[in-house]
Amino acid sequence: MKGMLDFCDLMCAYAKTPTETAIDGAGSCRTFVALYCELKKSLVHKNMPCSNKTMKGKVKNKK
Questions:
Q1: Strand, coil or helix: 7
Q2: In the predicted model, is pLDDT for residue 15 greater than 50?
Q3: Alpha carbon distances (Å) from 57 to 5, 20, 30, 43
Q4: In this predicted model, which residue has the larger pLDDT, 5 or 28?
Q5: What contacts 24+ positions apart, CB below 8 Å, involve 54-60?
Q6: Among 3, 63, 6, 28, which residue's Cα sits nearest to residue 44?
Q7: Which of 11, 18, 12, 25 is nearest to 43 (CA)?
Q8: How far is CA 14 from its chain centroid?
Q9: Cross-strand pairs, 37
Q10: pLDDT (tens digit, 9 = 90+) per residue, 24-33?
């Protein structure tokens, strides 16, 4: 819904678990607090407010 606040999580098409093994236990469980945002090209806090969230499967291919 437009106007509602979205939060960074793994349901976003741009969010990935960090590849570094020493970041908040990433890769071992889902209790970590950092996600890698492909849009921002940096680590972000999981569950922080995000105005760019796009649900997986809704990203249009750029050609």
A1: strand
A2: yes
A3: 20, 26, 22, 22
A4: 5
A5: 54/12, 54/13, 54/14, 55/11, 55/12, 55/13, 56/11, 56/12, 56/13, 57/13, 58/13, 59/13, 59/14
A6: 6
A7: 18
A8: 5
A9: 15, 42
A10: 555 555 567 8
Between 61 and 52, whose confidence is greater? 52
Measured CA distances, 6 to 26, 27, 29, 61 (Å): 22, 24, 23, 22
The H or E element spanning position 13 is none
Q: How long a stretch of residues is the chain?
A: 63
Residue showing tokens 């678990």: 17
Comparison of pLDDT for 60 and 50, the residue scoring more: 50
